[in-house]
Amino acid sequence: MNSTPIRNTTAHWRQVDAAHHLHPFTDHRELAAAGGSRVITSARGVTLTDSEGQNLIDGMAGLWCVNVGYGREELAKVAYEQMLELPYYNTFFGTATPSSIELSERLAELTPKGLSRVFYGVSGSDANDTIVRAVRHFWNLEGKPGKKTFISREYAYHGSTMAAVSLCGMSAMHGQADLPLPGFEHIMPPYWYDYGGDQTPEDFGIEAAQALEDKILELGADNVAAFIGEPIQGAGAVIVPPETYWPEIQRICRKHDILLIADEVICGFGRTGEWFGSGYYGIEPDFMTLAKGITSGYLPLSAVMVGDRVAKTLHDKGGEFYHGYTYSGHPVCCAVALKNIEIMERENLVERTREETGPHLAALLDGLRDHPLVGEVRSLGLLGAVEMVKDKATRTHFDKPGKAGTICRDHCFANGGVMRAVRDCMVLSPPLTISKQELDTLIGILRKSLDRTAEDLGVI
Ligand SMILES: *Cc1c(COP(=O)(O)O)cnc(C)c1O
């Protein structure tokens, strides 16, 4: 019999975690074989500390969300004060709270023109569910009840609820729950490195957008409700589309009267060096999904920005929308979001990402191109990816996708940096407060880890 470890030690936490905690996106057999969870106990700035006292640079800003970095007293204080003043009240049945009202105005000002109403939730997943319901309701009200099908893309990530997974383009997720639901279709992603062959990125961008029109014509525009896309596909491994892609998507949606949904859960709040990815690409969406960076992850909050066309129909003809969450417009989360936005503005985090740290990251990643494992690097702002391949000349992937990624990720951890592996891509999304020096350190860790990975795979 094992003796019971002392309480509040790593060994104790791991034992209890293994016995009682079901983790998201985790193979529990693998986790047990690896010795259990890494327990993160504190964080400051861009640095995490685990229960063994090891420091790690957080190259992922938690899960793409801690945009203003860790340890912000101002955010803790505003939450504390709001909890004392009014810890909770709902926004159903004709009530509202000051912070939910003020945040709505702030978001309407910050987001692109034409998006002036906000519906709140607590996660990106529920926000996308809200959009699915609102879009179908809208087309019913418009007298076009046939327009019900959503078109999304392979490698898209839109969340984990039934409707959100149906929007996702991840076949492994679909397989486990007999999804997608009826009325969800997927087209090719604007993933030039994998799908572009000999074409220039510009030509390929047009071709990838044409896949949307082909799908609309196949289904009939009278049956298509909306197209959804992340400006840059984050969890799909930071797929940065060619510059020709979004203008063409916008044109096709307008031509066929298809609503356009920009899922900005990762791209929003400065990640790309603009407030929103839509701003960078000139997208004028009918809906925008916001979460993650909206509070820098300090509290859960999501927001659906609703465009004026849809808002007007819902307002004038919609009656009651039978939809809402207990925590829609939660006053503490909204107060934290307001303060988070204030910090981003005061510290010029968006401009800094666009003009200083983003270009610095791009230059550092560029310096990895000569590495024998690196097939492509891509980035915009503080969103980056390094794609490892078996053969650079022919862009041939490794036989077992994900193996190189997992090896490299583990080396990164051992060398003091957190990066995520998606297939055999190393992806990066550090806090927007990261300094150039810290970026140098992070990419130094990545280069060292790529070297070790190459040794492990016998490539060098
Ligand atoms: C994370 C994410 C979601 C889901 O958000 P949750 O808060 O995890 O439900 C949706 N869309 C995108 C683009 C995301 O990255």
**Structure ligands:** pyridoxal-5'-phosphate
The total domain count is 2
Q: Give the percentage of residues in beta strands.
A: 15-25%
Q: What is the residue-mean pLDDT, rounded to a whole number?
A: 97
Extended strand count: 15
- Order of the strands making up the biggest sheet: 4-10-9-8-7-5-6
CATH-defined topology of the largest domain:
Aspartate Aminotransferase, domain 2
CATH class of the largest domain: Alpha Beta
Instruction: Tell me the name of the CATH homologous superfamily of the largest domain.
Output: Type I PLP-dependent aspartate aminotransferase-like (Major domain)
> What is the gyration radius calculated from CA atoms?
22 Å
Overall CATH architecture of the largest domain: 3-Layer(aba) Sandwich
Uncertain spans: none
- Biggest sheet, in brief? 7 strands, mixed
Structure description:
- By secondary structure, the protein is an alpha/beta fold.
- It folds into two domains: about 40-70 and about 350-455, Aspartate Aminotransferase, domain 1 (Alpha-Beta Complex), CATH 3.90.1150.10; about 75-345, Type I PLP-dependent aspartate aminotransferase-like (Major domain) (Aspartate Aminotransferase, domain 2, 3-Layer(aba) Sandwich).
- About 40% of the residues lie in helices and about 15% in strands.
- It has 17 helices and 15 strands.
- The strands form three sheets. Strands 4-10-9-8-7-5-6 form a seven-stranded mixed β-sheet, with helices on both faces. Strands 1-2-3-13 form a four-stranded mixed β-sheet. A four-stranded antiparallel β-sheet has the order 11-12-15-14, with helices on one face.
- Helix 11 links the parallel strand 7 (about 225-230) and strand 8 (about 260-265).
- Helix 4 (about 75-85) packs antiparallel against helix 14 (about 330-345), helix 5 packs across helix 14 and helix 16 (about 405-415) crosses helix 17.
- It is globular, with a radius of gyration of 22 Å.
- The mean pLDDT is about 95.
- The structure holds pyridoxal-5'-phosphate (PLP).
- Pyridoxal-5'-phosphate (PLP) binds next to helix 6.
